[in-house]
């Protein structure tokens, strides 16, 4: 997958861009709703014999528009790129979401980031908004599509148990420690990644390892969680303590050396009592 970084203003047609079908969204988590949207765009591209592309944004709009500091993500940047590639996206456009970009009118967004990128068709969610103060919506996008000759597909709301599948809902499940419910919305268990930086063995032979989870990952509230560890040697069950100070500690039956890179999948909560910081 090719990754193309775009800054504002994006004037003039981008060279060497073939006509394509483009999914647009922030896609944090790439949850089941996102997956449906992306797969729909992929099918359209195949039907029209065009490339399947996607457009996303970084950082999150709230970091620029609302001044949010140290935002955590369901899928930090490197994981999002990996997941987009696994879905089959052939080219990923990454727009630098800064103040000049946030100030664009809806028309300027369409002109610079749809027409100038030579998108033949765009696929968005029902609640997609764009342009200054989110004044552009799907109705406006469809009208401009008819005027300017590009197709627009709007994907309807996807729900589970009458709740809209959304990144916000999944973020709330994570922060509340309800990790066992996440697969119903995300399509898989919530996962993070980090590096082992301390190892110790207690008198019963149980291995306890402190792991530094990558800073951009959202973590569950303090408590004890049943997890599955993945590394280049396989998968292993274990428990993970999330502490009040944001630190995490893994309990496994086997030892991993300091510096080991691990993926941590959260399966269930064992206890949500407050855990002492160490």
UniProtKB/TrEMBL annotation:
Where is the FAD synthetase domain positioned along the sequence? Answer: 16-168
- For this protein, the Enzyme Commission number is 2.7.1.26, 2.7.7.2
Family label: Belongs to the ribF family.
Q: Which GO terms describe its biological process?
A: FAD biosynthetic process; FMN biosynthetic process; riboflavin biosynthetic process
| Reactions accelerated catalytically | FMN + ATP + H(+) = FAD + diphosphate; riboflavin + ATP = FMN + ADP + H(+)
In alphabetical order, the GO MF annotations are:
ATP binding; FMN adenylyltransferase activity; riboflavin kinase activity
InterPro entries the UniProt entry points to: Cyt_trans-like, FAD_synthase, Riboflavin_kinase, Riboflavin_kinase_bac, Rossmann-like_a/b/a_fold
Protein's name according to its UniProt entry:
Riboflavin biosynthesis protein
Q: From which residue to which does any coiled coil extend?
A: none
Q: Look up keyword Cytoplasm and say if it applies.
A: no
Question: Which pathway or pathways does this protein act in?
Answer: Cofactor biosynthesis; FAD biosynthesis; FAD from FMN: step 1/1; Cofactor biosynthesis; FMN biosynthesis; FMN from riboflavin (ATP route): step 1/1
Matching entries from Gene3D superfamilies are given as: HUPs
- Which keywords are on file for this protein? ATP-binding, FAD, Flavoprotein, FMN, Kinase, Nucleotide-binding, Nucleotidyltransferase, Transferase
């Amino acid at each position: 997958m090719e990754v193309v970084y775009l800054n504002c203003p994006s004037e003039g047609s981008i060279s060497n861009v073939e006509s394509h079908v483009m999914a647009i969204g922030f896609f944090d988590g790439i949850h089941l709703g996102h997956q449906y949207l992306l797969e729909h765009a992929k099918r359209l591209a195949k039907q029209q014999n065009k490339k399947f592309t996607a457009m996303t944004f970084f950082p999150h709009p709230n970091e620029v528009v609302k001044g949010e500091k140290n935002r955590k993500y369901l899928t930090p940047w490197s994981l999002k790129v990996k997941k987009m590639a696994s879905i089959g996206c052939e080219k990923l456009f990454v727009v630098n979401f800064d103040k000049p970009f946030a100030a664009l009118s809806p028309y300027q967004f369409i002109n610079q980031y749809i027409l100038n990128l030579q998108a033949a068709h765009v696929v968005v969610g029902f609640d997609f908004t764009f342009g200054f103060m989110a004044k552009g919506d799907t109705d406006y996008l469809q009208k401009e599509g008819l005027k300017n000759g590009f197709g627009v597909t709007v994907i309807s709301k996807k729900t589970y148990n009458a709740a809209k599948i959304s990144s916000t809902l999944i973020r709330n499940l994570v922060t509340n420690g309800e990790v066992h419910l996440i697969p119903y919305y995300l399509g898989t268990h919530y996962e993070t990644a980090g590096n082992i930086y301390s190892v110790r063995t207690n008198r019963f032979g149980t291995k306890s390892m402190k792991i530094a989870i990558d800073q951009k990952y959202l973590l569950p509230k303090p408590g004890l969680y049943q997890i599955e560890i993945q590394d280049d040697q396989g998968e292993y069950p274990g428990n993970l303590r999330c502490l009040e100070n944001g630190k995490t500690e893994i309990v496994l039956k086997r030892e991993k050396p300091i510096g080991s890179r691990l993926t941590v999948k959260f399966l269930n909560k064992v206890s949500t009592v407050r855990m002492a910081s160490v």
